[in-house]
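User: Second chain of the day. Same drill as before.
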Amino acid sequence: MSTTSTFTFNTRRLPRAGFTAGAFVVLAAGLSGCKSESAPYVAAPQPVRAASVTISTPTESRSYTGTVKPRYESDLGFRVAGKIVARLINVGDRVTPGMTLARLDAADYRLSLESAEAELKAAQSNLKQAEADETRYADLNKKSWVSDASYDQKKAAADEARGRAERALRSLSLAQNQLAYTDLIATEAGVVTALPVEVGQVVSAGQLIARVARLDELEAVVSIPEGRIDADRAAAATVTLWADSDRVYKAKLREISPQADAATRTYQARYSLLDPNSAITLGKTATVHLASAGHGERATLPLAAVFKDQGQPSVWLIDEKHGRVVKTGVEVSAWTETSAIISGGLAAGQKVVAAGVHKLDAGIPVRIVEVLP
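Assistant: Same format as last time:
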């Protein structure tokens, strides 16, 4: 007979809460042991682009537009009056020294010359006779054949004849000069800029016949506001032409008018061109560029390098020794489209973060990968 034995275990389920708490205790102990055995965590340096701080004195620049004019421009005229019978030049013609520009009717001046020549011949003949009488009476006076009074009369007559001959010679020279003045001769090389007379016109002595401008010294003439006169006196000047803006000419201030224009209240300034060439012609539009040193020292940073911290413009200054960034407040004097002009808060040679400033925190490690000029 087989006997079957049945065993029944009366097991009790452990409480879930008690098991979970014990598991956490064991897990915490394990994690604590792991932490004590590993090295502390160190963040990798963040790569940044830096900008080097360069301190410089700002330069103020301004421009004035004017025209090219000659420094020397002569108004030529006849030294005697008369009727113009020939005009040998036109406006724009180049002239050279000794060139005849115009001519007067010289008939009357030739007659005056002939009269002066005849007067001189008569005076010289009279002088010859008077000197002969003086010599003869001098001999007779020595022999006591004529009185001293008679000799003195002959001597005075000879002196008067000498004076008459001298006057006749001077009159002849004057008549020769007046005849020569009937030709208007150029004394300097240049170009004719004005010619207000025509053939057949009767002109007086000194009247304008031709205006000749010399081309060896040219100037840019501009008008300067009265508020800029003192500042512009010492400014460095250059000149460009509207027709040839790529070429820059050195210039120097020669003079400023002592009196303002009554209508525009500006002062005329003349800048001498130091290296003119044949490309510069009179009347061309010229622009005078002036540059002068400003006040104080400035540094120019990329616009992305500056951010505002509680309303204060700031930058991330790179501490290269410790590889960290430090927030530093700065003074901004001006903003441009691409840069910020810094007037205070930085020193020459320092480096600041040039981009990504809003992703940084104080004290985080950084690594410079590029330095902007």
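The radius of gyration is 51 Å.

User: Great, on to the next one.
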